[in-house]
Amino acid sequence: MDDKIRQYFEENFKEAMVRQDTFRDQLSLYIRKEFLVDICRDLKDNDEFRFELLADICSLDWLGQADKTEGRFEVVYNLYSIKHRYRLLLKVRLPGENPEIDTLTNLWQTANWLEREVFDLMGIHFTGHPDLSKIVTPDDLEGHPLRKDFPLTYEVPQFSWNKNDPPEVIR
Amino acid sequence: MNTAAKPRRTMNLNLGPQHPATHGVLRVELELDGETVVKATPHIGFLHTGIEKTAESKLYYKVIPMTDRMDYLAPMSNNLGYCLAVEKLLGIDVPEKVKYARVCLTELTRVMSHLVWIGTHALDLGAMSMLLYAFRERELIIDLYEACAGQRMMTTYFRVGGLAYDLPKDFDKRVKDILQKVPPGIRDYERLLNNNKIFRQRTIGVARISAEDAINCGLTGPSLRGSGVNYDVRRANSYCGYEKFNFQVPLGKNGDVYDRYLVRVEEMKQSLNIARQALEGMPEGPYRAHVPGVVLPPKEDVLSKMESLIFHFKIITEGFHPPKGAVYQAIEAPKGELGYYISSDGSAKPHRMRVRPPSFVNLSALPKMVEGGMVADVIAAIGSIDIVLGEVDR
Known about the structure:
The structure holds 2 protein chains of 2 kinds.
Chain A: H1 2-12, E1 17-23, E2 26-31, H2 36-45, E3 53-61, E4 73-81, E5 86-94, E6 100-102, H3 111-122, E7 125-127
Parallel strand pairs in A: 2-5, 6-7
Antiparallel strand pairs in A: 1-2, 3-4, 4-5
Chain B: E1 11-15, E2 27-33, E3 36-43, H1 51-55, H2 64-68, H3 75-90, H4 96-124, H5 130-149, E4 158-159, E5 162-163, H6 171-193, H7 197-203, H8 211-216, H9 222-225, H10 233-236, H11 257-281, H12 299-304, H13 306-318, E6 325-333, E7 336-344, E8 352-356, H14 358-363, H15 366-370, H16 375-385, H17 389-393
Antiparallel strand pairs in B: 1-2, 2-3, 4-5, 6-7, 7-8
Helix pairs in contact in B: 3-4, 4-5, 4-11, 4-16, 5-6, 6-11, 11-16
């Protein structure tokens, strides 16, 4: 199956491929972000593969560890083909400044919440998402906790609405 | 009178976050037209504790206790997923006995999780006594946990490369006791619910989702199989030696609440069956793999051998260093596909640990299930997806 995928990409999306690697029998393909939606649509509808399930979208921050040629952020799309019992990881690298990528919500409903989570925790913007809002962190929390430059120990005060106007007892 | 030209007035209703039927702190904002749900918007995040972020600052073995606290109704499954992922990252294998013990315990975990589900779900739908019966059987499994790990819920029993301790001496006896006492309990539940008029009316044809939609929404586990899609990680991408076990994957037809109920009840029976096979086939052997520098040596050796003592000290203080790379390991948790994506940069702490929580993804399909239905069916739908908010928010 790995070879089939490689061959398919070689024939159809040669210019989209950046590199590929296989670690512990798991094939990962690094692709250019412009081709993401086309590739996913093809992989999903193609009768040969039928990657119907978008299992997961996950994001990584390579702050300080990224090569100059590659961007700081990495988004991992975890596609699964129920028919072939086969999993494929599509990885996209994004720059540190204004990371942006097209949404997959038009293809999979799952992408809606998964992309919102990535947006909330890693601050990656998904163009065309119907409702790109925070999902797990409180509305008044600034920053994106999963970024490596988000401090682990510092805690944002949760109840700060009256900090300039403390009650009598404290004053 | 022309009533058609008048715009329909809708009402907003907040369901939760403090509502027992939402199974935790889930808030669903419902837009109602009379009793019909026009729009449902779940709001989550009340229990967000940043487990993924915290994991980045901990040694690999110190992450295990945090995994318990996500899906607290199925702690062993969470441990298993994490341990398998780290073992895959390290490229180590575990002894046969460990595999059998893990399978036996995780299958009992599935039964335990489904027991809580059947109790609370039936309670939501008006069957008050079910909860008591379900917890009666669950107690047996919890007692087994206590005998194994010393803890009743947050077990942290599985470790990278094996188990925390050897199985207790009366493990056989306890599991046999469970295998003997739980099936009559399940028969009781079926007698109470299967032909119960109220239960059937509240579940059949309710919150229906087609196979195609279910896949598109990313449903996994019993919620997906209730729609008739044959996808079970144990079968599809076998792990932990599941290919050696003989079991069926129950499937529903209609994709409604009742079918999801039937699938879970049948799953409990299959799980007990697997646990029986695991118990009967369990070989003798060590309870930890022998991988110096990664897996802790046996305690007796630590007390008597210099080398083991050094390894013990080094693992505890500085941890172990997996090679650079990233793995994704999925397991079939009671709620669905539980996946761990662990990326290593060669240091002793995970560069990134991502949990693919089944509850989170399954919950995102809730609007699809309830929109257009009645407001009372929302409760039935939430119960039938079987969510644990600790895992949704992490």
